[in-house]
Structure formats: C-alpha cells, structure tokens
Design goal:
Strand content: under 5%
Structural class: mainly alpha
Largest sheet: none
Shape: extended
Number of strands: 0
Number of helices: 6
C-alpha cells in the first residue's frame, strides 16, 4: 500500500509541475505589462516554475494601488441590484403576508 501511495503522490507532483510549466509559458507569452496587471511578478515568472506562485508581494501590490482596483472590480462583479430578486421570492413574501 505504501508503494501505491508513493506512486500516486509522484504522479500528482508530475501533473502539478507540468501545469505550472504551461501556465508559466502562457503568462510569459502575454508580455510584461499584461502579466503585471494580472498581479504576477514578471521577474518571478522568468525564474521558472520553481518560483511558484509568481504573485507580487502584498507590499508591491499596495504601493501600486492594484489591491484597491482588484477589490473594486470584485465588488462590481458581485453586486446584485437590490430590486433584482431571485425567481420565486416574491411568491414567498406574499405567502408570508
């Protein structure tokens, strides 16, 4: 059983390393400006998959104002207008009255 577990973990590590290499290649192909807009460190990406997770530090993000932009973007995506209600909720409110 130990051999199966070790083999499964080795396979998992292989797939993770392959995925990291593909993502690294894709991000490097986007160019420095786009990569940094997405919150990744171009220098860390150039270091390869071993430098995972390639994210900028919190200090770097805070100084460039990227955190605020990202938070506002998430808020815009997640906001549901107050008047918009899921289907069926109006019937529930009428039944309760």
């Amino acid at each position: 059983m130990i051999t199966i577990s070790k083999t499964a973990k080795a396979i998992q590590r292989f797939f993770e390393a392959t995925a990291k290499a593909r993502v690294n290649s894709t991000l490097l192909g986007m160019g420095r400006e786009k990569v940094e807009q997405l919150g990744y460190s171009y220098e860390a990406l150039k270091a390869g998959p071993s430098a995972w997770p390639w994210r900028k530090t919190t200090h770097d993000s805070a100084t460039s104002g990227e955190i605020g932009v990202q938070v506002r973007g998430l808020n815009e995506i997640s906001e549901i207008p107050h008047k918009q209600q899921p289907a069926g909720s109006q019937e529930i409110e009428q039944d309760a009255a």
